[in-house]
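Instructor's aside before we start: the two examples that follow are unrelated to each other. I chose them only because their records fit on one page, so don't look for a connection. First example below.
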Amino acid sequence: MSDLATERDIVTVPKVELHVHLNGSITEQTASELARRHGADPATALELVDGRYVGHWPDFGGFLNSYLLANSFVRTPEDLELVAAAFARGQAAQHVIYSETIFTALIQVRAGLEPEAMWAALRRGFATVGPETRLALVVDAIRDNGRAEAEATIALVEAADAPVVGLCLTGVEGTEPVERFHVLREAADRLGMGFEVHAGEMGPPESITEALDVLEADRIGHGVAAIHDPRLLDRLIRDQVPLDVCPSSNVSIGLFSSWETHPVTTYWERGVNMTISSDDPPFFGTTLTDELRQLVRVAGLSRDDLGELQRRAARNSFASPEVKAALIAEIDAWAAAG
């Protein structure tokens, strides 16, 4: 049996993150700065406890309220640039060499940002780090708001001057019939992009099946409900369906009581094609590095396992073949260096 990955391994491995929301990356410090910019007291306006987000929520609604409060102060291109720059620096500090950042563009447009100014703000924010930190966007539509939300999102992406590599369906599962969102699959094909669906998070296993069979998703966000359906889990393993697994997120909103009861260890041991991400990291008191540290602890990953997990994320990404090859070469160089 190989030795566990060390702390140095966890910190230094070149990381690839596929499931992290830009709108959910706003730290307490950034949110407080934004609130003060707009004349609000952060402690009351953001409902902070000792200057921090609560971190563990009674349910998804509690988390969503805090998330929306933080995002309510992203009102100008300069605000969005601050958020993007802070995110970029945080990824660079963790040696995340490639991120696919889920971005709810319509939130910003509805807050009054002109689309051209919005995309320019993101480009400026991302440009605060060097080219060794690659940052791409996956633009999502919230299913709760219906097909019109998806169509408006597609129109924004079609005109975007930004590094968009994918489309995504998010929101509360079961609020709308999924077939209404096949337009996202069609648009992704037309634009040469990937398509991800959040499924099997708070919804049942059938939500994952619909995402695959009705929406023809390339990748599933979360997918943890498959642990309750052995036949579905067998299918995911057989077909090597990519899953973005975000354990701290699931634990923090009460889907599982702890990392020990979360299915991530079973998924790893059974050979699910899973990767690890942080989802909305400051709201759940985590980072990608923290997620990997916990995974090593509960699932016993070795240094080789850690490298292979990152290669898998590169392979499952929506990046071009050339970028995927460059990412894997960097991970291989780390592995060879011992």
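Example two begins here.
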Amino acid sequence: MFALNAHLTRQTRLWCGNVFCHGLERPGATRKMSTQRFSCAELLGWIVSCCCWLLLASPTVAQQWEVHETLGHVELFSEFRLLPNVVAAQLASVEEELSRNLNLVQPDNAGIQVIVFKSAASYRAYLSSRIPEARHRRAIFYRSGDQYQIYAYRHEQLLTDLRHEYTHAILHRALPFVPLWIDEGLAEYLEVQPERRARSSRLMAMKWKCRAGWKPSLRNLESIPSAARMTGDHYRDSWAWTHYLLNESDQTRTLFREYLAAVSAGAAPGAFSEWVALRDSEVEKRVGSYFRRFRISLR
């Protein structure tokens, strides 16, 4: 179980579908708190705030779970009897691809809570008082300080949702910052199980769009100011650029890996379009031809 991060001035980040919210928590006491005086109302407010964060950070508080297991660095909670080994296999698949293709490895102290509800109603009831912005989303990745949590509920696309949100969790665990289009592009790409990607309807649509002379614009993606401004087209194009960089050639995959390595090292490599143009000026030009040559499997 993760320890509650009680620093009330720390920034909180919320990823819920296409909403990435930033908010500062209410300022609280510092190390000098013992020398400060508080009114009863202020003290009560502080206690209530701490209790709210405790409820959010610890899924076991006032909640009964049918499944509670630790799977490596994942702590799984579920309101129904899902199969932990099935979930573990899907999450491990995501992690293995990120490690193999991009050298993204979880820190030794990595820990992620995955919390699954039996129904949409149960999910929304649980989140309504904890993360009200997220209650209408199908699944969310939530980060507050050192807390990393994924919330989802039972339906036919549950494993897809878990793969998607787990990608966000790994990226934000491994990197000090994640460019928006890379964050969402990798999540969209990895949410689909590898054996199903060749039959993707999105891949077929991209093939025909590119055959008509269109190609996804990397610079447009880099100009999106926030996740809240992302549209369906932006998600599609983020997925397309990720698909291209990972699969076009060893060269594009290496460039992608080296850019993320620079981010991981704490460098400020700038926009990927500018960074990659200095190393291979043809990369942006080839994205359209990459999709045009695809043969789509209908099996």
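Strands lie at 11-16, 19-24, 67-71, 74-78, 112-117, 139-144, 147-153.
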